[in-house]
Amino acid sequence: MLILKKIKSHRYLLYLFAFSLPISQKVSTISIGFILLVLLFNIRKEKLKFKKRLIFPAILYVLYCVSLLYSSEVQLNVIEQKASLLIFPIIFILIKCTEVDFKLVLKYFVIGCVVALIICEFHAFYSSLDFSNFIFNSKINRRVSFYRSLVEDKNYFFSYNFSFLHQTVYFAMYLSFAIAILLHNKLFKNKYMQGLIVLFMFFGLFQVLNKASFIVVFVILIKKIYLLIKNKKIAVISSMLLFIIAVSVFVLNPRFKSFNKAMFIIDESEVIEKDFRKINNTNPNNYNFRVMLWSSALDLIKQNPLIGIGAGGTENRLYEVFAVKRQWYDKSEKYHAHNQYLQILLDVGAVGFFFFILIFVFFFKSVQRLNHNKLKTIAIDFILIILMNFLFESMLERYSGVSFFSFFVCGFISSYYSGRKNGEKNFTNTKPF
Fold it and tell me: Would you list the domain boundaries of the chain?
């Protein structure tokens, strides 16, 4: 069997990928290429126990590729788009990544998030400057109030205008995971520096204005309180106070006002035109956008629940059903299911969903047997972030999501294998920056 020779270069490339992932998709993709080159030129035959828990993302990738054979459209970009599901299992099967190595991976990921957030702040600041009139104004539309600029996503310091490196949902997910890592592990020698970085991350998370991230970070904070406070009465009181603060922040989120007015129950009697090609676009329904997408996805899943409708052309077919429910059709538009669980069933059916679930089953089994509690806690927070975001976004449909998911899932599982085999050094031995 093939195994990477005992050299350190592959570790540095893993650190480079973790660091560059929040900053640049191009750089992180190039680092994957370098890792594969190292594998190509530094491999030899040696006896190695196969890491079977890493094969399930790769199986899911194969199912995606096979689904193109029965899809309405043969979209070969799916093969490239989902490649991380295959590449990272191969990398972590061939590379020995110990728990100490993986702690450094987490460190560089946090530093990458800090750098990415600083870049976004500078970009927003620069965009707000009017050099001709020597004016600073963060509002894109200067005629509206500051509050309206937040509600309408017309402010350089908030939402997608701020998060220009990644879509807001992915950047919020990165920041949430970085916060979880910082809460459970000392990465910097100066505790005040670490505290300031945590606050900076929280501030950046608020600027991104992603509701799912607020919920998951709240859960992580509650869990952290119970771990820190031995007196459970005090822990309960602290949790209640945190809950009040979290609800206040959620309600104060400028998007909440429009969010809480959305309609969540679809009345099929209001669907007048059943043929999307004949919709006249005069009176669209105002139901919740995601609910209409989820309902549309379920309608398509029922057509072929076993193997799905195939990953190719899913966006177009989903939008055609969605357009009927919305009573508005624009052929230039296309959407994913905005729910990864429904997206899996839609693309590869119950067969693919079975292997998708197995990824989580063996992830949890591996995490339970990690040698060090800090890494175990971080892994649990990671999967909480993933599971929550999967409810509201088809994360595996974008490089930012599928690479994040596959890399860290495989990394945590690989840490389990190395720790089980070699005993492992203490997780706290790695020096903070």
Answer: 2-261+339-429
